[in-house]
Every structure is written in C-alpha cells, then in structure tokens.
C-alpha cells in the first residue's frame, strides 16, 4: 500500500512539474498581467505619453509606428529598441527605420518612470504596446484593453527588419502576403493602414508617387511637389502629412483621401486602386465606428505576434541594451 502511494505521489509530482513547464512555455498574455505587481503602470505610462504628445502631436504617430515596426520583426519583443554597439547590430539602422523611426527618448522616459514605481517588473515590449494604445486614444481614437506579459528579446535582426517591414512602394499583393504571413487578414491590413490617419512621411517615401503615378489627384500631387523636389538628394527629409485633412487627429479621413486618389504613399493608394480591398476602404470611409472596431481587433491581433513569455527573454532595465 505504501509502495503504491509512493508511486502515485511520484507520478503526481511529475505531472505537476510537467504542467509547470508547459504552462510557463505557453503562457498567455492577459490584460491584468501587472494588476498586482505594478498597479500604477497604466497611469504612469499615460502621463509620460500625454506630456510627449502635448509637446509634439506627431509623437503619437511615431510611438504607434514603433510598435508596428517592432511586432513585424520576429514578434512584439522590444528588439527594435536595442541600440547598435561595436559588437551588436540592431534594427534601428535597417532601411525602414533609419532616419525615420523616432520616439526612442520617450520610451526611455516611460521606462524610467515605470522603473521608479515598479523596478524590474515591466518589459520594454509591453511599454511599447501600452504607449501605442495611449497615443491612439489621446489623439481621438478608440480605446482598448492591452494584453500584457511580453518579455524582452536579447537579440535583434537588421536583416529581418529590412525584409519584414512592408516598404511604402509595396503593391497590394505584397502587402496582403506579408500581413497574412503574420496571421493578419486582409481586413486587418486595411484597418491597420488606417493608422496613417496620423503622422508624416519623408519626401523619399513618396517622391516617385507624386511625380510618376497616374492614379493621383493632380492638385494634390502638385501641392506635394512644392515641398518635395524631383531630384533625389534635394529635400529628401522634407515632411508631408499622411492625412491632409486631420493630420493630428485619429479618425477615418484617411480612407476618404484614398477614394479621392490622395493617398500619400504608393502602398496607401494600393488599398483603393481597383483591387480586392476597395470595398473595405469604402466601408470605413462611410462608417467610422466600423473602422475603429476593426482597428482595435487588428491591434490586439498584432500584439499577439510571437511574444516572448514565461522564462524566455528578459525584463530589460534599460530598453536600449540587454541586461
């Protein structure tokens, strides 16, 4: 009897250990992940994001873009935030990020503020996710509960950043293919592209469109040409708003622009150019609540891309370098 009980105890112990291993490796993100370990997290992040946007409304779009560019490269793991060093090559100088990704100082400020209230608890990857949500909400967009529990990567991949982030010259098939590869639907693609209702782009990103393409409103093209010379090397970093109507307010005007052939980037106008996404663009242009709802759904799905959980990765002390 004692022998049977001993065997039962050993089996039970093995099952408990096995369950612990599998549950930690398959740990799921949750909206209340830090409810006990860092109860003031959301108010701390929001205060810093709000201060940054009050100084410069464009910063909201910049923070949102950081989250996109992080998630699209090996998942939402904070790898984008790592600085290059003599022995480490990060993603900040990949083509999609060089001279355009910005807001890193704001993330540093948020991290410092969070460390003051909850040292060593909250990941930089999660801070990015919260900052993106807060930016959208503070600029007039929808609110949602952010799923948390990501850990920070100890590595980065410039090659993956160069290959994984869709270029502004991408055609519709390329965009659909890339989003689908990450588990995002074509509808998610259109909804997430609606983030271009805020923010600005550099002349280098839209020069070819305003001079060479025919599916563009002529007056719109001429206006943009006045601040973006045809010759490469001249005015390359001059900026133009992605949404000419309400560039610092998160709404559905972006889709109205596309219908009027006033998409700034080639990849924007591809969403309304006689293809499979035309109907979704039309729907969002007429129904802002439908756009907001689908945007939230797509943001949550994007935030679920390959997070590091359990014992994987780390909680960085400084978002710019591994511990």
UniProtKB/TrEMBL annotation:
Cofactor(s) the protein requires to work: heme b; Ca(2+)
Residues involved in Ca(2+) 1 binding: 70, 73, 75, 77, 79, 91
Residues annotated for heme b binding in this entry: 196
Residues that bind Ca(2+) 2: 197, 243, 246, 251
PANTHER family found in the cross-reference section: PEROXIDASE 52, PEROXIDASE 72-RELATED
Function: Removal of H(2)O(2), oxidation of toxic reductants, biosynthesis and degradation of lignin, suberization, auxin catabolism, response to environmental stresses such as wounding, pathogen attack and oxidative stress. These functions might be dependent on each isozyme/isoform in each plant tissue.
Name listed for the protein in its UniProt record: Peroxidase
Organism: Gossypium mustelinum (Cotton)
